[in-house]
Amino acid sequence: MKKPAFKKVYLFFSSLFIFILHMPFVFAKAKTVIGFLDKNPTNHPVAAIDSPLVNTVNGPLVKIDLYDSLCLGSLGLARQAFDYAMKGFMVMKSSGELTNGNIISIIDFSKPSSEKRLFVLDVVHYKLLFNTYVAHGMQSGKEFAKRFSNKPKSNKSSLGFYETLGTYFGGNGYSLKLQGIEKGINDNANKRAIVIHGADYVNESFIHSQGYIGRSWGCPALPERQHKAIIDVIKNGTCLFIFSPDNSYLSHSRILNHGAGPMLAFK
Fold it and tell me: 42-93, pLDDT tens digit by residue?
């Protein structure tokens, strides 16, 4: 009757001994991996953006990648759009362009308008605040935005980096002014009255009927049921980046090419 009990005790202490024996190897491996990550910041594209730190057992604090931690890829945000947005965000922040460096909004025009392609991120608290539909200019394309312009009355979207300004009530109701900060690319935003506003054509019923949402005269229009909440979060000095894998923009943007050569002013 005593043998089963003795066997259980023996197995318990044997397992405990093996566990203790392997502990140094586990920690050594963890330190090696963590040390590699800390010495290779390029493995963390967002490391420079005050990434949150996670405490590890017997190891240093490790920075987490914002894109992966918020599963932005699975939500449809292109990695290229995110990386370019973060680069420009840091350029704007370091130059004192932003009065609110906690928030960044990314519009990914590599996606069709039938997908939720606006992402509003809190980079300090690592939160996805909004992910919703956004319109492009009627002359930029139907389902996809493919053509862009900085010219007044072009009815096309303009790519690049913007600083959000103040709000006002206009013909489209509660709206948000935008300042395009890339010369020759989007700096006519004020002249063109390119603003963020709500629109009844930005809704899923349009997607069901025609395969894409309605289009604007160039404004990044939002769903009426969400635009006020979004505007109140991103107003007054935050960064907005409108992305497309457009070769002309990518090669001419002084912000995205910042650091590739001599210092270039982007205004």
Answer: 333 343 455 554 444 444 544 568 999 999 999 999 999 999 999 999 999 9
* Same domain for 241 and 188: yes
DSSP state of 240: E
Length of the chain measured in residues: 267
**Radius of gyration in angstroms for the set of CA atoms belonging to the chain, rounded to a whole number:** 24
The vertex-75 CA angle with 79 and 68, nearest 5°, equals: 55
Is there a single domain that holds both residue 227 and residue 120?
yes
Q: Which helix (H) or strand (E) holds 173?
A: strand 173-180
Whether pLDDT at 30 is above 80? no
Residues 52 and 82 in one domain: no
The pairs formed by 49-54 with CB atoms below 8 angstroms and a separation of 24 or more are 49/86, 49/89, 49/90, 49/123, 50/123, 50/124, 52/126
Sign of the alpha-carbon torsion through 142, 144, 146, 149: positive
For residue 70, being part of any structural domain is answered with no
Contact 75, 54 (CB under 8 A): no
228 and 98 in one domain?
yes
What one-character DSSP code corresponds to residue 148?
B
Does a structural domain hold residue 141? yes
Domain that holds residue 202: 78-252
Biggest distance spanned by C-alpha atoms of the chain = 94
State the residue for tokens 């490391």. 47
Helix (H) or strand (E) holding 63: strand 59-63
